[in-house]
Amino acid sequence: EEASTATTGGPRRRRVLVFPIPYQGHINPMFQVAGLLQDRGFAVTVFHTHFNAPDPSRHPAYDFVPVPDGLPAGSPGTVAATVEHIFAINGSCEAPFRERLAALLEAPGGRDEVACLVADAHLLTLMDVARQQGVPTLALRTGSAACFRNFMATPMLCDKGYLPVSAESQLDAPVRELPPYRVRDLMAVTSSRHEHDLVCKLLARAVEAVSTSAGFILNTFDALEADDLAATRRDLAGVPVFEVGPLHKISPASSSSLLPQDRSCLDWLDAQAPASVLYISFGSLASMSGEDLAEAAWGVANSRQPFLWALRPGLARGAALPDGFGAETEGRGLVVGWAPQEEVLAHGAVGGFWTHGGWNSALEGACGGVPMLCRPCFGDQMGNARYVEHVWRAGIALDGGVLERGAVERAVRRLMRSEEGEEMRGRARELGSRAAEAIAEGGSSRHSVDKLVNHIMSLWK
Ligand code: UDP
């Protein structure tokens, strides 16, 4: 099947281009997709912004093309600022990406090699650029299938009056068209009209990016989201959907970590009793107030449960753990800046996960067979927490309002030391087994990867 090139006479190389949106939770799955395509014989070129640029020396097999973005360093701090940041990346990368892609295609053998661009679904403008140059696109969404249904349903939910929310009392209303979501779990839920409009535009652009693409890649697996995947296929009529997750089990992403991972915590975990440790992490973007951080800390301390806390610098905008917390938890807890999370969650000593409910974290927790305490902040995190608690029944949602140390302490005890928590752990382990089956020989995700590879080959002219 490999044609010869006129210039070298050797086999024609096939290449995929990838362009992640530069946030940790989006970069990891994109590198994982790149990894699995490379395993199947594709050369990989990574287009990337200067903002949160990957380190090429950690991926010697890939080619890297930096695209100037003109953006200031530092992550945006609010939902509105994050959405604006995504629009700004699309806008400022458009012209330089067009130039760099044209240069790549015009280089000797360039156009011959390139099969497609896999881009984050939030990069519609850049996908348009690629298609204008004759490069087919595939969209990667790094959230769940359920979350993408929420994206697609948003205009209808606005028409029906669920959104924008005008009163606090609406938040607990069930969304009949999209069970098990309540209004408070929806993507575009916010009290600010400005923010509502921005988020609706973001979601509409992502839906357009997916529905105009030659394929849609999701980091999920059939046994986890069979109904939502079937509905997504139905609603997207015509765009092939490839559910290839859990990606971190197929192709590890530690090499795409933007922050150095403190691996010493794995040695510390080796010395802890099985399923005894609560692992705490709120991901790469979520933030909390200094007061919430203090309540969280005292709740954990008062539960007397051993813990490993990945406390990202900047989580609480400069606020530190409260005085006395270190002394109080001496010998029982370890705090690091950034952990090798996939390995931590797969470690036998970890018995629970307090998470913000980012999709990667929820998947990594489920695959590690670890029940979760979810404290969602924004975006898809509320919806993910709803699934963890209500559908997977593998965790507890701590949503709404300020944190309170007594509630935290009770939730930690429930998760780690109650019969109910043990049942959640059993269901989480069951999900972990389903995930392992999905990626094993003959499994649904393995099959999807085969289909994805064949599909990309069919796009390669
Ligand atoms: N992560 C990590 N070390 C940490 C915390 C997080 O490597 O200490 C990784 C985690 O494994 C996951 C990603 O960062 O793959 C976070 O993605 P997620 O979707 O959970 O949340 P986001 O950061 O996008 O809010």
Automatic annotation (TrEMBL):
Alphabetically ordered keywords of this record: Transferase
Gene Ontology molecular-function annotations: quercetin 3-O-glucosyltransferase activity; quercetin 7-O-glucosyltransferase activity
Pfam families: UDPGT
The keyword Acetylation appears for this protein: no
Xref: SUPFAM superfamilies: UDP-Glycosyltransferase/glycogen phosphorylase
Family indicated by similarity: Belongs to the UDP-glycosyltransferase family.
Protein name: Cytokinin-N-glucosyltransferase 2
